[in-house]
Amino acid sequence: MKQVLDGNEAAATAAKLARVKVVSAYPITPQTTIVEKLAEFIANGELDAEYIKVESEHSALSACIGAAATDVRTFTATSSQGLMLMSEILFVASGLRLPIVMTNVNRSLSAPLSIWCDQQDSMAVRDSGWVQLYCENNQEILDTTLQAFRVAEELLLPVMVCFDGYILSHTAEPIEIPEQAEVDKFLPVYKFPNPLDPEKPVTMGPLGVPEYYEEFRYMLQEAMHASKEKLVEVDKEFKKRFGRYYGLIERYRSDDADVILLTMGSLSSSAKEVVDTYRKRGEKVGLVKVRSFRPFPVKELIGALGQAKAVAVLEKDISLGSAGGLFLDAAASFINVKPAPLMLNFICGLAGRDVSPLQIKEAVRAAAKAAETGKVRRAVRWLGLREKVVGLKV
Amino acid sequence: MSLKPGAIITEPGSSVRYETGSWRTFRPVIDANKCTGCGLCWLYCPDAAVGKGKPPEIDYRYCKGCGICANECPFKAISMVAEERE
Amino acid sequence: MIEIRFHGRGGQGVVTAARLLAEAAFLEGKHCQAFPFFGAERRGAPVVAFARIDDKSIRVRTQVYEPNHVVVLDPTVLETVNVVAGLKRGGLAVINAKKIPEELKNAKVALADATAIAVETLGVPITNTAMLGALAKATEVVSLDSVVKVIEKRFKGKLAEKNVAAAKAAHNRTVIK
User: What is the ipTM metric for this complex?
Assistant: First the structure.
């Protein structure tokens, strides 16, 4: 059935379809309407779950950890500062290998105070042992959230489903809502292998002495690597059942492209429009979208970008003192690999600044020039800085 | 030894295999005449090495000689005596 | 693709207006997208929201810079915001006002006294549903019938009735200049 839903409603609907048993959340700013919607579902009997209101995001994720460990499917949602306050517990959840699914609505970080969209928040916790999937539209939010439970529970990894604040979270568009019976077939009943149970005691979170800690980190890293294959497998099964497939990356008119835009999240949509305008003129411009940022699809990107002359990485985050996080990982993918494309990084759209088609074209032009000359004068640039704003009509 | 994901230990009470008695430099000795069997030493012992009773039995395989029992005993019935090892 | 920009103030239902318009278009079998642009908003601050309607699926996610039409829920925003900025040739400004404001004397304008209508029908000066009625009258974007249907879906009971009355009254009383 098709319905007009915004991104937040899509995420909440997915959690409902997954029949989550515990939702824990801190309901104040920067929280989104995802948990409001879930509270409504529980209150009116559409979802049979326990709703735990807590006093901070630190506690929200802690409550999820306890719940997931007692063998129930668990969900929470957060955003920006909330994710920052959770960051300590993010590592606990992954270290304990608890398959929690969480939505992060991508919004920027203070200071200066901001409520608007960028990806600095989830990028700041990319090393926390959570699978990170970025969505391009509201259909992808619903579908990815359903897939996330499968991947999380089969590999004992927490999964963070990320999507852009406002640009998706508050944008309403028609999406296909799958039937509950079909989702039930896709998502088996949650089962945690060694749950907390007074009848059968286990110890969770023991001391990780130097003789053992490294092994547990290695096991977590191995699970992360394995999640690549699992994501594809689950995605394929999803396609069989629901007809939609996303992949670790998406290649859009990039196979023969000299210049490729590399993007993540909702920016991909507008950038595809720009690609089409170049293609209409016969210019070989393409796009590759990264959907799975953790695990990072190294092999897939080498395959998708390797033949290009220049790649322009557009992203709404910055590792201050270095470059954008997507750029760093994309560039590192080509270490020891030849041929490798020239790479340029464009930081844009911070704190909700609209990334206009003109700005995207500016990135394409710079990459095309690098492709032509074989040189990159400045690898990291900022798009749309105030003094450079040109051609915007509003 | 196989490590479980998340460092979960599935064998309950596996620390029983870890005998901390070898750490001891002072051993608690109970004066049966002063002991009232109040059970405070049993309650306080961090290694569950003190039993209940009047006087209680101490399991020296696990007693690490920390002296908490002697410190807590309201009747000064427990004294810490230096271990003499060869 | 039809792109519509809504102007108003926080609390007048600007965001809901865009969403209802998109849903009305969806009922007519169209593809749609509705989204707000939030500033550091409080009740009373100028607010913008956008709707896109197309026969094929909509991919672009930038703000709307060249709208086909604009809808202004509160004429006082004209003093600080250029509501017709980027308006496409032939595009209509559907305004909540009694007469053509000085700022729009060169634009193609449709007028509805939505504040009066909202106060009559709803008892409060929330003009979003009335202005959707006006838009349905002044343009071909969606029909009044679809607007009524989404209002009935969105609101319950008496509130739905009152908002339907607001939309219908505005539809009757909209004048294209």
Answer: 0.91
